[in-house]
Design goal:
single chain, alpha+beta, Rossmann fold, 5-stranded antiparallel beta sheet, globular, binds adenosine-5'-triphosphate
């Protein structure tokens, strides 16, 4: 049963040691979140740092006034509040996605500026039901074996550094509005939530129509079942990666040939998809059907194929994955903290001066020593050729240096691997494979999840 009264015990499962940012739009759900959270913290941990943040996207005439209303409410309740304005360029297509991207970026910046490691949003059971029903309409279920039907995760790691928790996912919007009415607190209605030109408002209206409670309940139950399946699949994929994968050189992953015949085909396909996306630097997992076909062919080595910008080279010595050399980024100025080729984070630290980042290239890779563990040297060199290196701009001689030698200026630690499909958003469902792949490729450790009972495994 979904809660008709907000279930406050969910707040007790969250670790507030490093404070919290409450993302408050001024709508009913996030305003109720703020009041419930403040109440919980006042009772259990009054010294907790709490900051309410409103993003003014500047997309509607009333947005600044809505932010001011949240600021007033916060002032009345003794809650610190900041309004951040999205001042960047607004794209003409994909506006909702760009606004969401900017919103999370600004929320994360506000949290980090205060040393806070957690953001809370007011997503509700109604939002969850809408998400799941939209995905079902789009056929996610059949294509993804329920992966997408898990809906929104109770927690998502943003940018591999800050957790976003959604404590109200089990609570109905109506219950939250009752809380506000009882407290005599108003809220803003966002007209885009009613605009049936968009898919979500259409589904929202359909849910509000009739049998509302049962349909929402069914959709949330479906999401809960799919979430359990997805987590279990992730644990099995992680176990396969731990058992069969190694990294003999930067940018090169070796799978023991037994991987393809280990017996748990769905887990092997999932592991393969995550590894392919990671090696290729893709934000999305490759197509499931194509990955299944690839796994099939891995059983009959030798062969070589490319999927998700990753060369899969199956030999007697093992199955080797490396970034294809096609379409690597050309030499460009290195920007601290930027993502290079979707798979490496640039960490310049104190290094100053104009630096270029470029692939090492085949000519320079050919001169390097190779692994001594029996890995074919040609594969090590091919992988290293696609690895990024930094140069002083004035000293870089281009992709093929010729007889004159140039040399990279920084240790390789200045360019850090990332688990590409989860680098931006890591839903807590996928913690196990993400943590395992991070350990495999030497990506930074995952920060501890905010809910008790979760481990990165
Ligand atoms: N402009 C914003 N400023 C701060 N947080 C926001 C903003 N827009 C959305 N959020 C956060 O994301 C959550 C989900 O966003 P969504 O757009 O579904 O909600 P909403 O309809 O704008 O507002 P609410 O959830 O408060 O009713 C919100 O509950 C809130 O925590």
């Amino acid at each position: 049963m979904l809660e008709t009264e907000p279930d406050l015990s969910v707040f007790s499962q969250i670790d507030f040691t490093n404070g919290a940012v409450a993302a408050v739009s001024g709508g009913s759900d996030s305003t109720a979140l703020l009041l419930l959270l403040k109440d919980h913290l006042d009772r259990t941990a009054p010294a907790t740092k709490l900051l309410a943040v409103t993003i003014d996207h500047g997309l509607r005439p009333g947005s600044a006034a809505e932010a001011q209303a949240v600021a007033r409410l916060c002032a009345e309740r003794g809650i610190a509040h900041r309004t951040l304005v999205w001042s960047g360029r607004k794209p003409s297509t994909g506006l909702p996605a760009a606004a969401r991207e900017a919103r999370y970026r600004l929320l994360a910046e506000a949290a980090q500026a205060e040393g806070i490691g957690l953001i809370l949003t007011g997503h509700t059971a109604d939002d969850q039901a809408e998400t799941v029903l939209m995905r079902r309409v789009r056929g996610y279920g059949a294509r993804e074996e329920g992966r997408g039907l898990a809906g929104m995760a109770p927690a998502t790691l943003y940018d591999w550094r800050i957790w976003i928790a959604r404590p109200l996912l089990g609570t109905r919007r109506a219950a939250l509005r009752d809380v506000l009415r009882r407290a005599n607190v108003g809220w803003a209605e966002d007209p885009t939530n009613e605009d049936e030109a968009f898919e979500r408002p259409r589904i929202r209206a359909a849910l509000a129509d009739s049998n509302n409670a049962q349909r929402v309940e069914d959709a949330v139950a479906l999401a809960a079942r799919a979430a359990v399946e997805r987590e279990q699949l992730g644990h099995r994929a992680a176990a396969l990666i731990r058992g069969f994968a190694s990294s003999p050189a930067d940018g090169l992953i070796r799978l023991d040939p037994g991987f393809a015949t280990a017996g748990d085909e769905p887990a092997a396909v999932y592991a393969l998809r995550i590894l392919l996306a990671t090696v290729g630097g893709a934000a999305f997992l490759p197509d499931k059907a194509r990955s299944e076909a690839l796994l099939d062919r891995l059983r009959a080595a030798p062969f070589c194929a490319t999927l998700s910008r990753t060369v899969v080279d199956a030999r007697r010595a093992g199955i080797f994955l490396r970034r294809e050399t096609r379409n690597l980024p050309p030499a460009a100025p290195a920007v601290d903290n930027a993502l290079w080729d979707g798979r490496r984070r640039i960490k310049l630290g104190d290094e100053s001066g104009a630096l270029l980042i470029a692939p090492l290239g085949a000519a320079r890779a050919a001169k390097l020593a190779t692994a001594e563990d029996g890995t074919p040297p040609s594969l090590v060199r091919a992988a290293l050729a696609a690895e990024p290196v930094l140069w002083r701009a004035s000293e870089y001689l281009g992709e093929c240096p010729g007889p004159a030698q140039d040399s990279p200026v920084l240790p390789r630690t200045a360019v850090c691997p990332v688990v590409a499909p989860f680098a931006r958003f890591l839903p807590s469902f996928d913690l196990a494979p993400a943590g395992t792949v991070a350990a495999l490729i030497g990506a930074p450790l995952l920060p501890a999840p905010p809910f008790s009972g979760h481990t990165a495994g």
